[in-house]
Write a structure and sequence with these properties.
Oligo-1,6-glucosidase, domain 2, Immunoglobulin-like, five-stranded antiparallel beta sheet, alpha/beta, TIM Barrel
Length: 547
């Protein structure tokens, strides 16, 4: 399938999007109510974070029933209505499949706990001493990745929270159960799927301690991962649907394999290397200024590598797990609007399918919570305690959470500047932060120079100008990592894209054939494409000429 290349995907974190019934929690009906807004952006697909039955220990990524709707989000009828009405507006619904693990409340795990050996083989149980876990692997959320069950005398693996037990993909019954889930939703009219941490599903034959790290080298991009993905896609008949895999700590070579259409695995992949450039020593919980040289190098490497071997990227800055990019790589103060538009230009002109996370098109910044009681995320609460145990003060720990917490992405969508930002008439499940009064859909709709208006232009250009979706990408030589410069080209058109990643004025040399070229889009007025051009803080410009 190639028709996803000129499309744009909008991610909806349902719990924080729009509350239709005043209970303080976003719901499926709320999404349906906002379809006109979403279609007005020009996007093509709506990816919904999990709406399945779940204890919600990890925001729904702890699924207790894959084919029924969590009551806080609504009913199956509500979802059927959303699928139907979205389809009428040319919007396809994508569902989030969490197939690496289930909730420990899932019927399969409960049967395993009751002693059923058939269902114990649905998961990864290991016999062992209650004081000695099978390996020293570390959970992604902190602590050991194994949990002991006294009544069974066994440990089970949980790469995430202890309430999220990893599935045993070696068991063909497990794989068939999960295929049936896909078939169920496909029959419902769902148009695509996002697969959560899917490159972790293939575990090693031998479980051993990691003397060099936290264990991820043993289970990331595991030995049978390509076999499992091909089987899942082939047997469910979804190779012509839009599919994207979230790839944790992955490699370029594997992502080429996952997304090369010849392999019939996935349409595209998420990788996160470019979102670790502000991790000091590679540690998410240590802060540093973004390393712009590293960012440049990573973008070049992945763009060129995927192009060379016919892989395909999902290109993005934000999602439900990432802090807001305008606070992270831009400036949510003086140059808020300029930097938000520059970051949008940067991503939307790359080779790949762009994803917009709810509120990104408004320039929503981080929440900047100053109290641990404002946080809801299990990872954030766990790491707050870990940081304190490491000797950080409460203020230092809160400063780190203010930059890194997933809750920065999960605060309510800003519909207006009224009570609770128009998200709910009730008490919101998470605090509505005090952010820019102009960062809401009403204010931005009235401003032709808004961040939202700029996103609409970018999304429309992808459909209007084939070179954006289908052209090649190249990177001219540059020794200035404060700038991200690249070219797009096809038989008819050429684009020269320049992004100033800083709050400083910069000069840039414009190639001779782009001097006095058309300015296709830019975030400032009156850019002059001269041989030696001046770039203002966070300026982005796309120059266009016929080939």
């Amino acid at each position: 399938m190639n028709d996803f290349k000129d499309k744009t995907v909008y991610q909806v974190y349902v719990k924080s999007f729009c509350d239709s019934n005043g209970d303080g929690i976003g719901d499926i009906k709320g999404v349906t109510e906002k379809l006109d807004y979403l279609s007005g952006l020009g996007v093509d697909f709506l990816w919904l974070n999990p709406v399945f039955i779940s204890p919600q220990n990890d925001g729904g990524y702890d699924v207790a029933d894959y084919v029924n709707i969590e009551p806080m989000f609504g009913t199956m009828d509500d979802l059927d209505e959303l699928i139907e009405k979205a389809d009428e507006k040319g919007l396809g619904i994508m569902l989030d499949m969490v197939f690496n693990h289930t909730s420990t409340q899932h019927e399969w795990f409960q049967k395993a706990l009751a002693g059923d050996p058939e269902y114990q083989d649905y998961y990864i149980f290991k016999d062992g001493d209650p004081d000695t876990p099978p390996t020293n692997w570390v959970s992604k959320f902190g602590g050991n990745a194994w949990e002991y069950v006294p009544k069974l005398g066994k440990w089970y693996l949980h790469l995430f929270d202890k309430t999220q037990a990893d599935l045993n993909w070696e068991n063909p019954k497990v794989r068939e159960e999960l295929k049936n889930v896909i078939r169920f939703w496909k029959k419902k009219g769902v148009k695509g799927f996002r697969f959560d941490v899917v490159n972790l599903i293939s575990k090693p034959e031998v479980y051993e301690n990691d003397d060099r790290g936290d264990g991820r080298r043993f289970y990331t991009d595991g030995p049978k991962i390509h076999e499992y993905l091909h089987e899942l896609v082939h047997d469910t008949g979804i190779k012509d649907m839009i599919t994207v895999g979230e790839m944790s700590s992955t490699t370029l070579d594997n992502c080429i394999g996952y997304s090369n259409p010849d392999n019939e695995e996935l349409s595209m992949v998420f990788n996160f290397h470019h979102l670790k450039v502000d991790y000091k020593n590679g540690d998410k919980w240590q802060l540093q200024e973004p390393d712009l040289k590293q960012l440049n190098d990573l973008i070049r490497t992945w763009q060129l590598g995927m192009q060379e071997d016919n892989g395909w990227n999902a290109v993005f800055w934000c999602n439900h797990d990432q802090p807001r990019v305008v606070s992270r790589l831009g400036d949510d103060g003086k140059y808020w609007k300029e930097s938000a538009k520059m970051l949008a230009t940067f991503v939307h002109m790359l080779r790949g399918t762009p994803y917009v996370y709810q509120g990104e098109e408004l320039g929503m910044p981080n929440a900047h919570f100053d109290d641990i009681d404002s946080y809801r995320d299990v990872e954030s609460k766990n790491y707050y305690q870990i940081l304190l145990d490491e000797g950080k003060t409460k203020q230092e720990a809160l400063e780190i959470l203010g930059e890194r917490s997933r809750d920065n992405a999960r605060t309510p969508m800003q519909w207006d500047d009224g009570a609770n930002a128009g998200f709910t008439t009730g008490e919101p499940w998470i605090s509505v932060p005090k952010i820019k009064p102009e960062a809401n859909t009403i204010a931005e709709a009235e401003d032709p120079d808004s961040i939202t208006a700029y996103y609409k232009k970018l999304i429309a250009l992808r459909k209007e100008l084939p070179v954006i979706a289908g052209g090649t990408i190249s990177f001219p030589e540059s020794d200035d990592s404060d700038l991200m410069i690249y070219e797009r080209s096809d038989d008819n058109d050429k684009l020269y894209i320049v992004n100033n990643l800083t709050d400083k004025e910069k000069s840039v040399k414009i190639p001779e054939d782009f001097v006095n070229a058309e300015v296709l889009i830019g975030n400032y007025e009156d850019f002059k494409p001269e041989a030696e051009a001046a770039l203002r803080p966070y300026e982005a410009v796309v120059l266009h000429k016929k080939n």
